[in-house]
Structure formats: structure tokens, C-alpha cells
Amino acid sequence: MARFCRPLIVLSALLLLAALPRPAGAYGDPTVLTLAEAVDKALGRDALVRQARQSRDSARNALIQVRARTPRLSTSADTSSATGGSLDPESVITGTQYSSQSYSSNLEMPLGGGTSLSLYTAASSTTTNSSLRTGGGQSFTYASAAEGVGLSRPLSLFRNERVLTEGPRWAAETALQGAELALESARRAVIGDTLSYFFAAVRAQRQAQIAEASQREAEELLRIAGEKLKHGQLPEIDVMEAQVSADSARTTVRRQQSAAATALDALKNFLGMPLDQAVQVSHADAAALAPVSLGEDALVQQAFAQRLDLRQSALSIRSAELSLRQAKAQARPGVFISGGYSRSGQAPTIAESYRALINSGWYVGLSTTVSLTHREDRAAVNQAQSSLALAQQEAQLQKEAIRLEIRRLLREVQDTEANAALLAETVKRAEENLRIRQTQFEHGLVRPIDVMQTERQLEETRLSQAEAVVDHQLARANLSLAVGEVPNLRGGQS
Asked: What is the pLDDT of residue 5?
């Protein structure tokens, strides 16, 4: 009975293990990876994208802080005491004790345009206690208090005050725009790298599949040659040649499979996937990619309008212009107009002084600020001018580089498109030649070596066509990135 139970237990365990869910890629079941999924994985793990996203958030918070007109409150409190003796021995006053307290607070509220409103209050109290030679003493207390409101605004008489007052906000807005463009540029750079790794894996995988198909054809030829040898229809030397061709096909398959595994490992390493995970890339070729409808000049103008790096250069120029305007404004004198209203009062105590604020007053005045460091100011202006000229020069050089890049990529798209179309027709002719050779071989009209040569030509043509198709799609995707667009990650046109 035990001999029969043990196999049943083993069989039940195997069935239970087979029923358990298996992770993707386990037991030789490969994970199918598309280009869109690869891009999502790359964007999710790229450190530069995360860093650019953090920089964007920091720039956004900095703009919020600059836009916020936060009131500034300052307070102070002082206490002092002293004792003094009489210098005149005939005086009836032998000594005097002094004590004083002072309090002040100022609330300044920015209103925009450099205008500020201030609310202030101040109070002080002084106590004097004098001792007499005859005994006893006299104590005197004096207190005062004041409160008022003030208004100050700069006047654009000699310099551009708005550049100084609104400049920090403009700079923060420009920094936020630059951070957003930097984030999108980082994302597109990751897309470009993913395209290179992914299409390299697609090319190697297709080459391995073509080599496997050629191996099957060589082995089928060897089988037919062996059958003919048995019936005396073919000499042994021809069979040996078919055997050599089959062995060569097996060697080619191993080499192509190794290249495909290496390309897949590079892709998995770039995407952060486990190297031991079985992966199969999947990308559908578009049935008919429409030719690029725009010419070189139109594509260049489109790139000038859409390229993120050119927009970043424009922001750099704008920032340099703002720095130059600020440097010129700070080197010139500034004029401010100010006015206010205040009330004050005196009483024996501070509290009574606040209740007796009866002395009112108005004031209006002009104040001027003049820089005494003319050489430093001139150096700051020259440095800002140099930075602006450098930013403009870099933008111009960048446009020339973009023009050359689009010219090269457009030529590459046209060449790969023509090669893919020509090789597609060549593959059809090679397949027809192979079919004819196989028919002739079955009827004894040609030798196996003739069929093997035709098979080898077909394999080389298929490899060339597969490479041309992948190169064409990669060139189209790179041209889309160069123009400033995001390529279609589902296959086909951008």
C-alpha cells in the first residue's frame, strides 16, 4: 500500500505546484516589453528626471515666496539704570538714582511697486530718585508715547525702479520656466536613450529570428539530401556539403542569439530590470510610413519654434538682460518720496501717555540714495553685458548645430527609407529564387550547393532588410526629437 501512496503524493504535489501563480518571466515564460513600457520604466527610475523634478518644485516654491508680500515686524525693549553722587559738599542732595525703559515696534507691509506702508509705536519712561542729607528723598517720573503711520514709494526719475522692485519676481518666474523646460528636456533625453537601447534589442532579436529561420531551411535541405542519398539520387559529397551548411547555420544562430542576449541585457540594465528575467521586446512596424512631407528649411524653422533647448537659451538671454538692467539701475541714484502721520503724548506713566496722544503731526519728504562705488558698479555692468553677449552667441551656435543635426537626420531618414523599400523587393526576389532552386533540386536539376548559396543570399538580404527597417524607424524617431516633438512610442509616424 505504501508503494502506491508515495507516487500519488508526489503527483499531488506536482499538480499543486503547477496550479500556483507564476511570476512574469519565470520558468522560461518571457515578459513582453513594448517601447512605451520601456520608456515608462526608464522615466520612472532615471535620477536626472527625479533631480529635475525636484528643481522644478524648488523653483515653484521660490516663486511663491517672492510673490508673497510678507509683513515684517521688528520690536525692541531696553532698560537701563545708573547712580550718581553730588560733587558739591555743601549741597543738600547727596546722590541721585536714574532708571529708564524704552519700547518700540514697527510693522512694515509691502504693497507692490516698491511702495511700503509702516505702522510704528514707541514709548519710554524715566524715573529719577534723589536722596537728601536731612533724610528722605524726592522721586520724579516722566513718560512719553507715540504712534504713527508712514508711506514710502520710489520715484523713477534717474533709474528704472520697476526693474529693482519687480526684478526678483521676474527672475523667479524665469527660473520656474527654465526648471520646467529642464524637466521636459531630461524626459526627452531619457526617451532618446531608451530608443537606442530598445531598437538595438529589436534589431538583434530579429537577426536571431532570421538566423533561426535560415537554420531550419538548411536542416530541411540536409534532410532532403539524406533521403536522396538513400535512394541513390545524390552523391555523398553533396550531402556532406549540406551538412557543412547546416552546421554553419547553427553557428550563426548561436552567434546571433548571443548578440540578442547581450542587447537585451543592456536594455534590462538601463531599465533597472533583473538580468535573469526573461524578456522579449515587441515592436510592430508601421505598414506604410508616410514620407517626410516637410523640407529641410521647414523642419529647421519648426525646430527653432519647438526645441526645448532653444527655449532654454531664450530664457537665459532674458535672465541676462534682466541682470544687465538691474546692474544699470543700481549704479544710478534713487529718489524716494515718503510721508506719514503721527501722534504723541506725555504723562506720568506709559499707559496714561497712550491715552493722552494729543500732539499730531504730518510730514512729507524726499530722500536720495547715491552709490559711491562707481568702479565696482561699472564692473558689474560690464560683467552683465558680457554674460548677455555670451548667452546670445551660444544661442546662435546652438541654432547652427540644430540645422546640421536636422540635415543629417533628414538624409538618414531618406536613405534608410529607400534602402528598406529596395531591400523589401530584393527579399521577394530572393524568396522566389529559393523556391525555384528548391523545385529544381527536388527534380534533380541542381545540386545542394546551388540551393545553399540561394539560401545564404536570402538570409543576408533578410538581415539587411530587417536592419534597414529598424534603422529607418530609429531615424524617424530621432528626427522627431530633433524637431522638438515626442516620437510616437506605439510604432508608426510621429
From this structure: 41
Per-residue pLDDT, 490: 62
CA distances 398 to 87, 294, 402, 479, Å, are: 85, 22, 6, 17
Q: Rounded mean pLDDT of 5-28?
A: 41
CB 36 within 8 A of CB 487: no
Cell 553685458, residue?
Answer: 385
- Average pLDDT for 102-119: 88
What three-state secondary structure class fits 24?
coil
Which ranges of 331-373 does DSSP label H, i.e. alpha helix? Answer: 350-355
- Cell numbers linked to 81: 539704570
CB-based contact 266:197 (threshold 8 Å): yes
Of 465, 463, 472, nearest in space to 422 by CA? 465
**Residue 197 CA: distances (Å) to CA of 260, 264, 396, 463, 485:** 12, 8, 32, 19, 20
Residue 399's pLDDT is 93
Q: Sign of dihedral through CA atoms 244, 246, 248, 250?
A: negative
- Identify the pLDDT of residue 491: 52
Residue (of 299, 282, 55) closest to 185 by Cα position: 55
Angle CA 445–447–450, to nearest 5 = 105
Task: Please tell me what DSSP assigns to residue 27.
Answer: G
In degrees, rounded to 5, the angle at the alpha carbon of residue 63 between the alpha carbons of residues 62 and 69 is 100
- What are 313's three cell numbers? 537659451
pLDDT band at 137 (very low <50, low <70, confident <90, very high): low
478: its cell numbers: 530621432
- Written in H, E and C, the secondary structure of 183-252 is HHHHHHHHHHHHHHHHHHHHHHHHHHHHHHHHHHHHHHHHHHHHHHHHCCCCCHHHHHHHHHHHHHHHHH
Beta bridge partners of 80: 100
DSSP state of 135: S
What grid cell was written down for 336?
A: 524716494
Q: Rounded mean pLDDT of 223-250?
A: 84
Ordered by where they begin, the domains of the chain are: 30-59+171-319+388-483 (1.20.1600.10), 80-155+336-370 (no CATH)
Q: What is the pLDDT of residue 84?
A: 60
Convert the pLDDT of each residue in 155-173 to its tens digit. Answer: 888 888 889 888 999 999 9
Task: Record the cell numbers describing residue 475, joined without a space.
Answer: 531615424
Predicted confidence (pLDDT) per residue in 259-294, tens digit: 999 999 999 999 999 998 888 888 877 655 666 767
Helix axes 448-483, 296-306, angle to 10 degrees: 50
Q: What is the Cα–Cα distance from 184 to 189, expressed in whole angstroms? A: 9
Is the pTM for the entire model greater than 0.90? no
Distance, C-alpha 484 to centroid of its chain? 15
Span 357-396, pLDDT tens digits: 888 889 899 889 888 889 999 999 999 999 999 999 999 9
- Fill in the amino acid letter for 275: L
